[in-house]
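Before the break, one more example. Copy the sequence into your notebook; we will annotate it together after we see the structure.
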Amino acid sequence: MSAEKSMYERMLAGEPYIADDPALARDSERAQRLAHLINTSDPTDHERQRALVTELLGGFGEGSEIRPPLQCDYGYQTSIGARTFVNWGLVLLDVATVTIGDDVQIGPNVQLLTATHPLEPGSRRDKWEAAEPIVIGDNVWLGGGVIVCPGVSIGADTVVGAGSVVTRDLPSRVLAVGSPARVVREL
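Here is what the structure looks like once it is written out:
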């Protein structure tokens, strides 16, 4: 076996990679198929919904719920804790890991975006990408339309107002709003 890492290994290690690697394409297609099944299955069949989400994600805690539609790159890079509620329209660009804690509330049309792209035109033209993980602490509430950018951690018990764009880490027990999101008070 070659000492050089595959693009798949580079992505999982958090290193720059090219996304059209055959192994990554297979994994992405798997996620697309499962997301399609989740998004088109009977919404009252909670057992099937849970089984599909559990198969898609790297972890899905007891008592958690995701309302379709759901979109993701890979699925296995995302773990969701117990008793977490995700409203309609979650987008997970889970190239790097996305860790969502227990008792989290996620509003409709939230985007958790781990993917990054080089600023250098040549590297971007050559299709190089990278990613930085996202961590959402326990008991966080992300209002509708929130966007969380690559590399961001949000501390426990924090609330992020609707439509905010989170570009930097947020501490625990604060209210943050705006674009970019700014702490407006402690909770």
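Helices lie at 7-12, 22-40, 46-56, 121-125. The longest strand covers residues 182-186. Try to locate both features in your own notes.
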